[in-house]
């Protein structure tokens, strides 16, 4: 089969409408379009809220002013923030990004003021996330354009200032969003003359718009018709298993409160976390492999009544591989803010439990299976294109069908200090005795999940504390979810 028609991505090009200033457009590709269509058809499923709490020497009003100025700068270096999404512009099957450049710095400033919401009332991170999870994208601007991003300046988040975004997962994967935060904080604290908004060549910022994932990762590989087809075949075989995945079991088939999002945490820290990290490394596994495997085993163990003659399994249909590490120049820059993931299925067969008696042996078998499964994808250079190709071959035009609506998802964002700097200094003031102008105190986020009973677990580590957060809708009970997270940690700890 010749896949060239699915590998050839349109780049940004002019889009003219009568009486309207020239815009620029391209189709949405890969995880961009899959996540946007999921938002669209499933009551905003997965829309993102993400924020950082700050310590700063700046006065509140000065900080607010600098955040606004930084947002203007972000409009220039990451103009996708000011884009909209429209159907039938480039492709009858795919929605398209549409962007109109700012005519001048004053228009960019008006955009920033309209795109930054000031929150004066006191909040905690969790209750603010819940507030935003009640909202649905997009935001309609005063010029009538629907925008899939809004920033927030919070004056009192646990008695500290904070900045947050609310937007589409088609733009705001975790790592690009953290990159965006670092650009904003650098601009607040350094303010280089050449980066001042009035010094920027407005009208040309469209050239900073991100291309599709295949272009950004170096173009299609020459062996996609063979090696890429192999990956697509593997994915198809995993997804076409005759029996649905095992899952945890919700308390209710329908939510009691359709607007409620459940957020349940479990924290691993101190000597326990240090020992888990050290021991998993000694055994040749990553912390991600350890906890993803423990997650799968917790599900297996919660289904001990399954018929052993069945082809039972735990499958993560939406496992994520970030494309960030595959980006090529000039797209491997922090300002390349756009969703970019390979979305692949990972299957744990029942044999990892059935053929091993002890929990430790089951965990090792599951980690081995996980490592081999991911290696199958990451060792094949065509992994950068499989999600984009699959999305064009079978475009999502209605509510996605899943045989088990309660399926589980787990993903590890990583160690936050490794993904963005925490301290930001004034120019020339970065010595050992210097006090940072701004320092990140905490990071927090959430997804809108009212429309779906999926059980989504995120992991991240910050300041020596690993957070396990499960988010879902009101079909579940909080105590049950806390016990689920506790089981994951208990299973992971058998390596000690």
Count the strands?
18
Structural class: alpha+beta
Low-confidence stretches: none
Chain-averaged pLDDT: 94
> What percent of residues are in strands?
15-25%
Oligomer: single chain
Roughly how much helix do the residues carry, as a percent range? 25-40%
Number of helices, where a helix is a run of at least 4 consecutive DSSP H or I residues: 15
What is the CA-CA span between the terminal residues? 49 Å
Identify the overall geometry.
Answer: globular
Biggest sheet details: 6 strands, mixed
Strand order of the largest sheet: 6-9-10-3-16-15
Task: Using the CA coordinates, give the radius of gyration.
Answer: 23 Å
What keywords describe this structure?
496 residues, alpha+beta, six-stranded mixed sheet, four-stranded antiparallel sheet, 15 helices, globular
Structure description:
By secondary structure, the chain is α+β, with helices and mostly antiparallel strands. The chain contains 15 helices and 18 strands. The chain has a six-stranded mixed sheet with strand order 6-9-10-3-16-15. Strands 1-2-5-4 form a four-stranded antiparallel sheet, with no helix packed on it. Strands 11-18-17-14 form a four-stranded mixed sheet, with helices on both faces. The longest helix has 20 residues, at 359-378. 44% of the residues are buried.
């Amino acid at each position: 089969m010749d896949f060239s028609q699915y590998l050839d991505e349109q780049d940004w090009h002019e889009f003219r409408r009568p009486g309207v200033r020239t815009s620029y457009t391209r189709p949405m590709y890969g995880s961009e379009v899959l996540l946007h269509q999921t938002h669209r058809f499933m009551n905003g499923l997965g829309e993102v809220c993400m924020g950082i709490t700050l310590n700063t020497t700046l006065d509140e009003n000065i900080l607010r002013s600098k955040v606004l100025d930084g947002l203007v700068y972000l409009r220039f270096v990451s103009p996708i923030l000011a884009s909209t999404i429209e159907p039938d512009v480039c492709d009858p099957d795919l929605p398209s990004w549409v962007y109109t450049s700012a005519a001048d710095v004053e228009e960019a400033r008006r955009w920033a003021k309209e795109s930054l919401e000031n929150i004066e009332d006191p909040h905690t991170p969790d209750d603010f996330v819940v507030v935003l999870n009640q909202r649905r994208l997009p935001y309609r601007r005063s010029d009538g354009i629907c925008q899939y991003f809004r920033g927030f300046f919070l004056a009192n988040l646990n008695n500290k200032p904070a900045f947050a975004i609310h937007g589409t997962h088609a733009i705001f994967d975790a790592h690009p969003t953290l990159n965006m935060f670092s650009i904003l904080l650098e601009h607040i604290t350094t303010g280089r003359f050449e980066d001042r908004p009035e010094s920027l060549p407005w009208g040309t910022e469209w050239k900073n718009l991100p291309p599709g994932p295949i272009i950004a990762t170096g173009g299609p590989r020459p062996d996609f018709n063979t090696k890429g087809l192999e990956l697509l075949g593997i994915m198809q075989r995993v997804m076409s298993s005759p029996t649905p995945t095992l899952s945890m079991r919700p308390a209710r088939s329908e939510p009691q409160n359709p607007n409620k999002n459940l957020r349940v945490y479990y924290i691993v820290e101190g000597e326990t976390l240090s020992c888990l990290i050290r021991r998993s490394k000694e055994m040749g596994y990553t912390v991600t492999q350890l906890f993803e495997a423990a997650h799968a085993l917790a599900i297996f163990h919660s289904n001990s009544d399954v018929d052993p003659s069945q082809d039972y399994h735990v499958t993560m249909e939406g496992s994520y591989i970030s494309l960030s590490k595959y980006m090529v120049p000039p797209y491997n820059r922090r300002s390349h803010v756009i969703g970019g993931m390979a979305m692949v299925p990972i299957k744990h067969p029942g044999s990892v439990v059935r053929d091993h008696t002890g929990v430790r042996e089951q965990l090792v078998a599951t980690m081995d299976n996980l490592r081999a499964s991911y290696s199958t994808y990451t060792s094949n250079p065509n992994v950068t294109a499989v999600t984009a190709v699959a999305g064009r071959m079978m475009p999502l035009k209605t509510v996605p069908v899943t045989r088990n609506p309660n399926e589980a998802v787990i993903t590890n964002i990583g160690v936050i200090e490794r993904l963005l700097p925490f301290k930001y200094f004034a120019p020339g003031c970065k010595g050992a005795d210097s006090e940072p102008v701004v320092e990140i105190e905490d990071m927090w986020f959430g997804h809108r999940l009212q429309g779906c009973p999926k059980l989504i677990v995120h992991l991240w580590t910050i300041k020596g504390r690993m957070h396990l957060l499960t988010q879902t809708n009101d079909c579940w009970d909080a105590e049950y979810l806390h016990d689920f997270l506790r089981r994951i940690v208990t299973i992971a700890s058998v390596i000690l």
